[in-house]
């Protein structure tokens, strides 16, 4: 009996030691030197740094680097940015994904920027336990059914953008005849289809056109736009293409105005005489509460022009760094641990509100914003 009690007591003591050890690890605080060593890792940026939409990727990586510099200075961390240029080509994005998965210094992917890059790389990141946090990939099916369990996005998806465009074009603009154009890619085709279907349900006459993402001459499409067409909705990732389309409509005497989807949001690229554009995050230039960070970024970038893509990617980077730092509290970090912690993210956002993810990896409470463009000048619509 006594031997049994002793054995039981020793068993309880051993269990207590294990629990105490586990608690000590979870509550341990790394020294500054340990934190610096643990955070000496890279955020792998995946986006188009060259090619037809290089402006988009360059804006994003600039804001990401700005955020990393700011975070490192405030927290004595040593994060770095490793660029991965997709050139807006899915096969290239797949190659970048393979390279990042094999690079053990990369602790989180920032991006991919484009929906098609998520589709070709998402399974690779998932298998490697590597979190990917995007600031601009909005296609609905990237999270529907949770196909990539390590993918998150800090912007709302096209399930919100599509209805917003439909209601604005048919309601506030009162359009009765609309042309909807896609860019023959995984982002624009489903979005253009959803907008077309929704407008028809509002008793709007809809014609469909399709162009390549590389097209620079839309004269044949413009020729098909009748004088009774009110709006041309262009689902595109190329802001300069949206600008060219608007110019060619005006040159051919067409009355229709261009409504660009979020890929067209660029004050330096899309500058129609009259037009509209939808985007997944508010432009900080119009937010009084963001004046300080806008001034800080302007000093950092020497007044580089930006829209909504950069600040959203800044937040994606902040999500990654915050959770890697949390994981480093005990002086060590793994990709799987970071991915697990990202699911519990709850941090204030420079875009307003907070960043929290639902069980699919989508942003909770996100909204698109529509801007009116007059002679190249942007202002909130409505």
Question: What does this protein look like?
Answer:
- There is one protein chain.
- This protein is an alpha/beta fold.
- The protein has 2 domains: 34-156 and 289-355, Response regulator (Rossmann fold); 159-279, Response regulator (Rossmann fold), CATH 3.40.50.2300.
- It contains 12 helices and 14 strands.
- The protein has helices at 2-27, 32-38, 54-75, 90-102, 115-127, 158-172, 188-201, 219-223, 239-251, 291-301, 309-327, 335-342, and strands spanning 42-47, 80-85, 106-110, 132-134, 151-153, 177-182, 205-210, 231-234, 257-260, 274-279, 347-348, 354-355, 369-374, 377-380.
- The protein has a 7-stranded mixed sheet with strand order 7-6-8-9-10-13-14, sandwiched between helices.
- Helix 4 packs parallel to helix 5.
- It is elongated, with a radius of gyration of 24 Å.
- It starts with a helix and ends with a strand.
- The model is unreliable at 1-26 (pLDDT under 50).
Summarize the entry for a quick read.
With 382 residues, the protein is of the alpha/beta class. Helix content is 43%, strand content 16%.
Spatial arrangement of strands, main beta sheet: 7-6-8-9-10-13-14
Q: What characterizes the major β-sheet?
A: 7 strands, mixed
CATH fold-type name of the largest domain:
Rossmann fold
Overall CATH class of the largest domain? Alpha Beta
Unreliable stretches covering 5 or more consecutive residues: 1-26
Overall morphology:
elongated
End-to-end span in angstroms?
Answer: 82 Å
Relative helix content: 40-55%
* Helix and strand element order: HHEHEHEHEEHEHEHEHEEHHHEEEE
Binned strand content: 15-25%
Domain count: the total is 2
DSSP strand count: 14
What is the CATH superfamily label of the largest domain? Answer: Response regulator
Count of DSSP helices?
Answer: 12
The CATH architecture of the largest domain can be named as: 3-Layer(aba) Sandwich
Overall residue-averaged pLDDT value: 92
Q: Structural class, please?
A: alpha/beta
User: Radius of gyration from the CA trace?
Assistant: 24 Å
């Amino acid at each position: 009996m006594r031997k049994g009690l002793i054995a039981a007591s020793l068993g309880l003591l051993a269990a207590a030691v294990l629990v105490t050890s586990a608690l000590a690890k979870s509550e341990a605080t790394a020294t500054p030197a340990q934190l610096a060593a643990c955070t000496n890792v890279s955020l792998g940026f995946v986006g188009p740094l060259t090619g037809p939409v290089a402006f988009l990727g360059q804006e994003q990586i600039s804001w990401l680097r700005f955020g990393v510099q700011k975070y490192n200075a405030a927290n004595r961390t040593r994060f770095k940015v490793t660029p991965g240029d997709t050139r807006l080509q899915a096969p290239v994005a797949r190659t970048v994904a393979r390279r990042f998965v094999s690079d053990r210094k990369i602790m989180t992917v920032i991006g991919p920027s484009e929906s098609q890059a998520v589709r070709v790389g998402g399974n690779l990141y998932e298998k490697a336990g590597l979190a990917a946090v995007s600031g601009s990939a909005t296609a609905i099916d990237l999270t529907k059914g949770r196909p990539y369990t390590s993918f998150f996005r800090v912007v709302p998806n096209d399930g919100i953008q599509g209805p917003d465009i439909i209601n604005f074009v048919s309601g506030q603009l009162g359009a009765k005849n609309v042309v909807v154009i896609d860019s023959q890619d995984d982002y624009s085709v489903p979005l253009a289809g959803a907008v077309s279907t929704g407008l028809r349900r509002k008793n709007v006459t809809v014609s469909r056109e399709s162009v390549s993402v590389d097209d620079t001459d839309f004269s044949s499409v413009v020729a098909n736009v009748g004088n009774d067409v009110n709006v041309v909705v262009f689902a595109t990732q190329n802001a300069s293409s949206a600008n060219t389309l608007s110019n060619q409509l005006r040159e051919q005497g067409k009355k229709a105005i261009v409504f660009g989807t979020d890929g067209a949001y660029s004050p330096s690229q899309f500058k129609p005489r009259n037009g509209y554009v939808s985007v997944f995050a508010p432009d900080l230039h119009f937010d009084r509460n963001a004046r300080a960070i806008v001034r800080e970024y302007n000093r950092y970038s020497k007044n580089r022009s930006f829209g909504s893509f950069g600040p959203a990617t800044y937040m994606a980077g902040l999500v990654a760094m915050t959770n890697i730092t949390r994981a480093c509290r005990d002086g060590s970090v793994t990709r799987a641990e970071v991915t697990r912690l990202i699911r519990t993210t709850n941090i204030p956002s420079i875009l307003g509100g907070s960043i929290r993810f639902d069980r699919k990896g989508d942003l909770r409470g996100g909204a698109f914003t529509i801007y009116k463009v007059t002679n190249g000048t942007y202002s909130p619509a409505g």
